[in-house]
Design brief:
Three copies of one chain form a homotrimer.
Chain A: E1 2-8, H1 9-16, E2 19-22, E3 27-31, E4 41-45, H2 48-55, E5 61-64, E6 75-78, H3 82-93, E7 108-109, E8 114-115, E9 120-121, E10 126-127, E11 132-133, E12 138-139, E13 144-145, E14 150-151, E15 156-159, E16 164-167, E17 173-176, E18 182-185, E19 190-191, E20 196-198, E21 204-207, E22 212-213, E23 218-219, E24 224-225, E25 230-231, E26 236-237, E27 242-243, E28 248-249, E29 254-255, E30 260-261, E31 266-267, E32 272-273, E33 282-284, E34 289-290, H4 291-302, H5 304-312
Parallel strand pairs in A: 3-4, 4-5, 5-6, 7-10, 8-11, 9-12, 10-13, 11-14, 12-15, 13-18, 14-19, 15-20, 18-21, 20-23, 21-24, 22-25, 23-26, 24-27, 25-28, 26-29, 27-30, 28-31, 29-32, 31-33
Antiparallel strand pairs in A: 1-3, 2-6, 16-17, 33-34
């Protein structure tokens, strides 16, 4: 999330009751997750395992639950519970103030765009020109839609991330991490019916220009989709994943989180992508392999009885 | 389904034109499916195969298409077509009288709860305090929502069960069994966008406190979900299944009907659970096995060509 | 798509700026895809590979980008870009003129049918008698719904086909082919919550009488479903496929495009149907095989370690 205007780090420290150490004159430009932070950003870390990564990331300001050394020019904001501090900042700068009209007065809708009945357009949503938003679509606060975009009926743009902090005092439970990112949909994207595209937790979920999705597709938070991809029905993509340009995912493919699918890869129906895969190749299986390797496997499995007979001297299990 | 007040069994017998045998002075407290019946309940049975189970269940009153012996204190309601008798009772005591307002006047909504535009709240729905019901959500009649519940846009709570009576006179066809159960959503449950949670046929579908679901998740009728479970996107769970506490189902997992997943089980993405599985373990595959066993299988399959070469003396199929 | 009244072929030729050769006195009754065309129809072809198939199809009028011979009684409409000519005809005869009311004035709704709040009923939609259209359902223009049909909350009927023309000048991109077909839902069909049924590109998507679908089911464009089928939750069926009567697809089954599933076939959960399969049999797997064959395969795979030990003399990989 970018602040509308840079905020003095002292203001943030006061808001969250932090002890401020280091660059106390700095201005904070935004707040972001560790793997998306940029110079000027605030990040948070509460586990010793990640202290070093966070302190040495691009983040200029670090909310942390210890005092430790850090590079010059940065600042630490020391608090007992960095997660709660993060939540406080988000709820202060991006409060949940739902519009109670179907089309918010702060939404902007470009020339030639049609918003059909039953569609909800939240606060500060921007829709470009010549778009069609079909009935019963929901576009939540702060999402940005380009030109010539079609969103078919019932789809939801900007639902909150499925992102929880696990707590284990007495029993396991989960605390929602507030989503302050957005969904950015570039020009000429077409989204099928009853799809769901989650907003980023703190960065943006991005759908690249010209990408087309069939119905009931799910795109997780902070995921970045390239240009001119094709996703068939019921594809599901988890959070913080990168899909490069021209990727084709056939029906019911599942893609795990924080991985990359290279440019031009094709993944056959019902496959499961659990690790990054190279572009320019064709994949199949759950987990995926290159399709022609996976196909050979099917042939080999069918030969087991023949092997068995040769080795064991009988077609039945000895 | 519980009746608002206990109903004399003679009233029920008259409604469905049944011959009443046995405890004719009793009061019926509710109507339920065989595996959910309690003392005071009415159940129905129309197939000789299930006569004995039904008569000896907890049900006090049995709608049946034969005269047979039964335990003292119970009553039989003898009719030609128990299924039709059941439908008649449901449509009399739980008639379909849809509210034609977006928020029914008989719905109750707790303090601090926000119902966003386009959300439909049916008759006798109860929503606790500090909930958020996002745009274009549908919550159908009689569903009960706890406190601090979040339901994201486009989700449907209380759709009818997918439950049909197969008829084969002349040709196969299916007759819908009326759903008179409810959906009960406990405190601090969070439901993603475009999910669907079916009501129970005659019992309740229950989502335990603290459970979180991602988008496009489907929960079948009469299914009981424990506390603090996590279900990732596009998970589907069939009817009358039990998921104990702290179960984690990753994306696109499918779970069959009337089974149990034990406490703390973890099921990897795209797996299929067709029988009950123990808690505390990690599973993968369709059908599932323990994940580490399934992983070994992948290794063994890759060794078939080596076996073939050793046995057949050539890498190619002889 | 059928025209409301037959149109002189000269009118069409003028609309698209085509050179007209052959039967210039003919009347065009409709426009259709190659595999759905009938006598009197207009079809289009732009690739030499399909010239002959198209010219010799049932189509009477062919939009084409070459001059070639053709059977007597037919006509060619020669243009540079047949795809664009097709788009122009569709947008002229089936223009997108969205109703801005939740229930269009041109929709007709039969006696005893209930349209619940938040449901959108488009232009020229026809709904029979005794139907229930639940809240937040979307039924788009020109769809035809029979009697005693139930459509549960959030479902979308008549979304556009996922059908694109691939263009590769400079970079790959996709151009939407306008959908001018309809969805026809026959009597006593019941559709679950948050399902999506795409309209045909130029023909109709048809759901046969008595068929029942659970939630989150996706049906592609131009697909024809038989009578009294059962589709469990999250089934996905691609475009232009034929499912015959009494077919049962269990949860999360995926079915590819342009194939046929024979009468009475049963496909177990999570299976993938990539080619046509015969009726009357039970299937499992991705891709499917007959279920009992597939089950044997699971047993054979479990025997590999035993084979390995016998051949290699050790349980571990040599």
């Amino acid at each position: 999330m970018r602040f509308d205007n840079p905020v003095p780090v002292t203001t943030i420290a006061q808001l969250i009751g932090a002890e401020l150490i280091g660059n106390i004159d700095g201005y904070v430009t935004g707040i972001n997750e560790l793997h998306k932070v940029e110079f000027g950003d605030l990040a948070f870390v509460d586990h010793p395992k990640y202290y070093s990564t966070c302190i040495n990331s691009a983040a200029t300001f670090i909310i942390i639950n210890t005092k430790t050394c850090f590079p010059e020019g940065k600042a630490l904001l020391v608090v007992d519970d960095p997660f709660e501090a993060y939540q406080k900042i988000v709820s202060f700068y991006r409060p949940f103030t739902p519009s109670l009209k179907m089309i918010s007065e702060s939404a902007s809708i470009g020339a030639g765009s049609v918003i059909m009945p039953g569609a909800y357009i939240g606060n500060h949503v921007s829709i470009g020109s010549n778009c069609i938003v079909h009935p019963n679509v929901t576009i939540l606060d702060h999402c940005i839609i380009g030109d010539h975009v079609i969103i078919q009926a019932g789809s939801v743009i900007g639902s909150d991330a499925f992102y929880y902090n696990k707590k284990t005092n007495r029993e396991i439970h989960y605390k929602k991490m507030a989503s302050c990112g957005r969904v950015l949909i570039e020009n000429a994207v077409e989204i099928g019916a009853n799809c769901t595209i989650d907003r980023g937790v703190s960065h943006d979920t991005i759908i690249g220009a010209g990408t087309k999705m069939d119905n009931l597709v799910h795109i997780g938070h902070d995921t970045v989709i390239g240009k001119n991809c094709l996703f068939a029905g019921q594809v599901g993509i988890a959070g913080a994943t990168t899909i490069e340009d021209n990727v084709i995912l056939w029906g019911q493919v599942g893609v795990s989180k924080t991985l990359t699918i290279g440019k031009g890869a094709v993944v056959y129906a019902q496959s499961g992508v659990k690790d990054s895969i190279e572009g320019g190749k064709v994949y199949f299986g759950s987990p995926v392999e290159e399709a022609r390797e996976k196909m050979k496997e099917f042939v080999w499995i069918k030969r087991i009885p023949q092997l068995w007979e040769k080795v064991m001297g009988s077609k039945d299990k000895g």
